[in-house]
Amino acid sequence: MATSKTAAVLQGKKVVVIGGTSGLGFAAASALIEEGVSVIIASSSADRVTAAITKLSDPAQQYNADASRVSGHALNLKGPTAEENLKEFFSKVGSFDHLLYTAGDSIAAKPLQEWSYEDIVNAGSVRFISAVLAIKVATGSPDYLKRNGGSIVLTTGVVAEKPLPNWSVVASYASGLYGLTRNLALDLAPLGIRINAISPGPVETELWAGIPEKERKEFLKATGDKLMTGKVGQPEDVANAYVYLLKDKNMTAQVVTSDAGSSVADRQ
């Protein structure tokens, strides 16, 4: 657990992680627990929430979390009931200090001609639309996200900066999150709430489940070989960036990139 003056900035804080049962969200929740934070995680599956809480509370995992500092709720972010579901969720959570939004739809990269209207909407239902709604609800009442010190961290992706074949639809939502972060920073400033975003490059998470296994493995291997680090990132690597953005009270309206240099150049 964090003990130094700078490391203890988050100690005792209450952080909501939407999408906190797997991938980047789970890794961020784990890192925050090690900082002395109380974490509330949310996922569409009640079983996954229970499993994540059990794992985070397990002394053998060495996350330094007792059961009193880890809780969670099922939260369906898809479809027209998303806003009402978020209202119910935040009413259960009550007052909290920071919000991390790492939830996303499975990644699907395919030619534009193969995208239907339904596919396009579904690609951004959780990743973008419900992110906006989560912020709307969380900041709409002083009983939820704390003002004058609260903050939000969204999750986008470097495909917004570096085009890739067949990624146009996903990239459009990623780019939208860039603009959302910067504009909302201005809108939320009078409330004393900061907002930033993390832009990960290729990271090995469950979001790649939308791509067939053989293609996924080949893609991650080929991608890793091109990166300056020689491999795709792991969730635990990027988790540190989320922690940093919560700690730095001077940071708002920014997108922090953690991508093994992929947005700059390929490995030579």
TrEMBL record:
Keywords: NADP, Oxidoreductase
Record-linked Pfam families: SDR
InterPro entries with a match to the protein in the record: NAD(P)-bd_dom_sf (IPR036291), SDR_DHRS6-like (IPR051122), SDR_fam (IPR002347), SDR_PhqE-like (IPR057571)
CDD domains registered for this protein in UniProt: SDR_c
A GO molecular-function descriptor: oxidoreductase activity
Transmembrane segments: none
Similarity field: Belongs to the short-chain dehydrogenases/reductases (SDR) family.
Record-given protein name: Uncharacterized protein
Species of origin: Kalmanozyma brasiliensis (strain GHG001)
